[in-house]
Amino acid sequence: MTTITVQQSLNWAQPFIRNAPMAISGSEPALTSANIILQTMLRPPFAWPWNRATAQANLAAGNQDLVIDLADFGHLEKCSVTDPNGNTREIEIRNVIGAGSEQARPKAVATQANDGAGNITFRFLPAPDAGYQATLTYQKRQALLTALGSSWAPVPDELSHIYNQGLLGFALLLEDDVRAQYFLQRFALSLVSESEGLDETQKNLFLGHWLQLAREQQATQLRTQAGAAGRNT
Q1: What is the pLDDT of residue 217?
Q2: Which CATH number among 3.40.1350, 2.60.40, 1.20.144, 2.60.120 corresponds to the domain 52-140?
Q3: pTM of the full predicted structure?
């Protein structure tokens, strides 16, 4: 269940920043900070049972591309194909697949194109040699939060500790507080610990990228503070 709003998270965070406002210009930068946190939680490599959907479609012999109307499509998680005899097999997910003329039982699939209007093109390799049924399991795309009164949907309330730490990290960044890096790190570590199905490589890549961003932000803060101290001496 999702009931907690962005505003409630801000209310929790504000005592940590001595009640300094995060909504300075309208709802900003609080609203964009919340969107960054939510998008980070819902984008690859993360996959959540509460954000999962499934679609099925028929593959025609010789047709390498399959176009499906999936208005809520975020990213492909798994795919399996069932042959005319009812045998089902999971196939490999790739980033991109080139055109090919070979026909056989498909072994791989890629999200090839998204026209922005909900029409998603999936490309299979090899092109099917008969009629198959594809079952696509995907993570749903979340529309941007538009107001501080918006809930953190689809993230359930029991994971509020993750996005609250991220929002507090951004709030502390705004205040040039050295604690920002700690809470941004806690956000990333909590996110990885709660996620399902990530291998060690995926975890390390995400943590390395996110923590590097946090370190860069911290270094910027320290340079700014040192410069201000130098001017005041």
Answers
A1: 55
A2: 2.60.40
A3: 0.86
